[in-house]
Specification:
five-stranded parallel β-sheet, elongated, eight-stranded mixed β-sheet, 13 helices, Rossmann fold, alpha/beta, 19 strands, binds cytidine-5'-triphosphate, about 425 residues, single chain
């Protein structure tokens, strides 16, 4: 199984001895080329080395100087440039990942038919690494049988073709065909770098999974609350990876500011009680429930209907607290279907493993993902490391890496549990 990056400075990249992960960013001629600048920036800022290979048409939208300045490397479009370096073979051969964003209908057609009439299509023929296409075009072009067949041919040969997003297209029209946002594209690519060809597996197809994410807030009055520092990033990574592996996903999001994962049903909640109701409702009939949200254990006993005023003539009143229900323990104890898997997360600052094992037993869940939290650990960051504890004994160490990599390992553990319940 592919491990996450061995080098902390290179999240998501393969352990290339002595070097950074090599990414080729192919850009074809569509208006969404401007979004590829942001994707490029994300790659370079996170330690990836990027060679940009635009088509001649792409340069009508974003010029060579921009690609060269942002990548820190020269940019070529034709095989006739720098011929002595044989770039049409070298660039593809040395890549750890090729991503084409945006991929126009024309580029998909040329790639599907193995044409090699410019540097990008040559690179696509020589690449032996995973290749990702992020198509962007008008809905009619995306739906045309010619494009459908080209996409199917590329997928049959192992390429990863991302579904375009639905939304505003070039003009006033809207529909399917938008390039997904750079953040989502970057997360997808980082996952492919970490997981290799397994990134295409659809082993959650036909499964419904419910994931809670974020942190609950318990109001004191209309303007103040008791909350926590959870950003929701790990829960969203779980949702994105489950979607990528073919699952139907319900994401219960508590106070997050992250873009909705494309294809997930997102239910927004604020308090622990709202989260309990949403998760318990969605969990009926689900195959797995993953509680990645940080849930407040207590809430203020009284919630003031108006803003609590500062009084100069006396000290503040103490805040009385009452206990919130333990949602995870409730889900584990009251599963409608004994085959449903219940997964918890544990945030610990000390005695991480001992506390984790005790918590797994106390909560009665099947798997518990234990990670250490602190000032700069886990909360709000892009990366995580954890141990996945299984109530049946096994412990899986997941080294420091992108939150997507941990999410994949959690789903691997879930799939292993399902497989052991119904061996093939
Ligand atoms: N959890 C829950 N309901 C609560 C508190 C926590 O469902 N009222 C879930 C979290 O979503 C997580 C797991 O329980 O999956 C562990 O959360 P954590 O905060 O680590 O544990 P606590 O039970 O709050 O224990 P403690 O604060 O003592 O560490």
């Amino acid at each position: 199984m592919a491990e996450p990056a061995a080098l902390p400075a290179e999240p998501g990249g393969p352990a290339r001895p002595g070097g950074r992960p090599e990414v080729v960013l192919g850009v074809s001629g569509g208006i969404a080329a401007y979004k590829a600048c942001e994707l490029l920036r994300r790659f370079t800022e996170s330690g990836h080395a990027v060679t940009v290979v635009p088509t001649a048409a792409a340069l009508n939208f974003v010029g060579e100087a921009t690609w060269s300045a942002l990548s820190g490397r020269p940019v070529a479009t034709e095989v006739w440039q720098s011929v002595h370096e044989v770039p049409h073979v070298r660039i593809g051969r040395h890549a750890d990942l090729v991503v084409v964003a945006p991929a126009t209908a024309d580029l998909l057609a040329r790639a599907a038919h193995g044409l090699a009439d410019d540097l990008l299509t040559n690179t696509l023929l020589t690449a032996r690494c995973p290749v990702v296409y992020a198509p962007a075009m008008h809905t009619e072009m995306w739906e045309h049988p010619a494009t459908r067949e080209n996409v199917a041919a590329l997928r049959r040969r192992g390429a990863l073709v991302i579904e375009p997003a639905v939304g505003r297209l070039t003009g006033a029209d809207t529909g399917k065909g938008r390039l997904p946002e750079p953040e989502a594209l970057f997360a997808f690519c980082r996952r492919v770098l970490a997981r290799g060809p397994r990134a295409a597996e659809q082993d959650l197809a036909g499964r419904h999974v419910v994931i809670s994410a974020g942190g609950t807030r318990e109001p004191l009055d209309p303007v103040r609350y008791l909350g926590n520092r959870s950003s929701g990033k790990q829960g969203y990574a779980l949702a994105r990876t489950a979607l990528a592996r073919g699952a139907r996903v319900t994401l219960v999001a508590a106070n997050t500011e992250l873009p909705d994962p494309a294809g997930a049903e997102v239910i927004r909640v604020g308090t622990a009680e709202e989260l309990r109701r949403a998760v318990t409702g969605a969990a009926r009939g689900a195959d797995a429930v993953v509680m990645a949200a940080a849930v407040a254990d207590f809430r203020p006993a009284d919630r003031s209907g108006s803003k609590i005023k500062k009084r100069d003539d006396r000290e503040p009143d103490p805040i009385g607290l009452v206990r919130n229900p333990d949602i995870l323990a409730g889900l584990a104890a009251g599963r409608p279907d004994p085959g449903q898997l219940v997964v918890g997360f544990a945030a610990e600052t000390d005695d991480v493993l001992a506390n984790g094992r005790a918590k797994l037993a106390r909560k009665g869940c099947d798997l518990l993902v234990v990670n250490q939290v602190g000032e700069r650990l886990a909360f709000g960051t892009e990366e995580n490391e954890a141990v996945i504890l299984d109530a049946r004994g096994p412990e899986i160490m997941v080294p420091h890496g992108p939150k997507e990599a941990l999410a994949d390992r959690v789903w691997d553990a879930v799939v292993a549990r399902w497989d052991s319940a119904h061996p093939a």
